[in-house]
Amino acid sequence: MIKDITQDALQRMDQAVIHTRTEMSKVRTGRANTELVESIRVSYYGSLTPLNQLSTISIPEPRLITIHPFDKSVIDEIEKAIMESNLGLTPNNNGDLIHVPIPPLSEERRVDLTKYIHQLAEEGRVAVRNVRRDAINHLRSSQKEDHISEDEIKRSEVEIQEITDSHVKTLNEIMESKEKEIMIV
Fold this sequence. Notes:
Layout: H1 2-25, E1 41-44, E2 47-50, E3 55-61, E4 64-69, H2 75-84, E5 92-93, E6 98-101, H3 107-146, H4 150-183
Antiparallel strand pairs: 1-2, 3-4, 4-6, 5-6
């Protein structure tokens, strides 16, 4: 019973870290990154479809993303979706390919993105702490129902706290890494 609760908490905390890492990878830095555009939804025959399902996305240069649509008739829709995505990118097309140059970030924009990264990291830490709270509450309620000793509950709480600390540390490392990436001129 205790192992199940601990295992469930570990998996849910892992999911929180993965989600935070994914969200941070979508934040634009001064360098090209396919994750920046691949989740943009494009209107394709009446349904919103992720860009990575409609095209091949590549990075031929550090500050350029190229998008090669499988169906050339959707080029205008892809350009429109990129413009509406609020990423501050301006796509150009030559009939076959869409070129998306990545402009360098201004100092003000870097500071704003750093604040946003901190916000994402805090949301991740809050999610991890919520999982910890749920797990500890679950342990305490199972103590009464299943007649588990107080010592076992305390040991499990310490173990859950250690798991929480390691996940928070991982989130902080991800945040610091992304912050350095943003601040590189």
